[in-house]
Amino acid sequence: MLGGDDLILLLTHHCARDTSIFPTEDQRLTLAAIMLLLIYTGCRPAELVDAAKRKATSDPAYKDDNWDSGYDSTDDVQDNDPTYGKALCYEDIRLWFVQNSSLGERDLLAMEITLAHHKGADKKPKPTPFLFHQESLPTLCPISHILALAINDNAIQVDGYTHAQPFFTSQLRDPTKAVLVHWKLEKLKVPIFRQAVRTRTFDGLATSEHKALRYLTFAFYLDHLGWAAGFAQQLTSYCFRRGTWNAVD
Fold this sequence. Notes:
With 249 residues, this protein is of the alpha+beta class.
């Protein structure tokens, strides 16, 4: 069961002290974002990443990598095949500029995330929205993490919003109280947390354009982080859910 101090320890080690080499650096950002959503919402990882069961195959070329056995890239879904799987996609996320109540101050960011892939959703769908406001400490702010991933994916439809600065310097004028940030249409069905795969153009790894991050890959990252941060027991997604329940209780 995780508490607030445990979360800060994990994120501090993950962002500032961890020397592990991820397949791609946006995978490091992805792991941090998932951890924040898990602890803030109490959701299951299957609501964020692809938890579908599949026959695992290993790629011997990964044996020389730091993250050698956490995932594989040779399954039945090719990277150029738009088969996304059940995971959190851009269409499930709404990012807003909200006018600051303090006169003369810059706007604040807010976010609404709808989680639809809960347990039993195929038989009884019940999408659940969660609202987030901008945190003063970026390490604990899921909006900052999601925004960074969106900018890296070039997912924002508004011209000029290809870097972070415009999001933190805007000032809405009355009577406009809030403005929705629109995603590009071709990005709406794309999972925001995606798998690292081997590329065909060069000998290396890149984040897939289509394939959602697998649960086994996420679980491997989380387990590795727990041991690296000095946890005495295995770190799993259930630790986050228990921590949320304990805080609410």
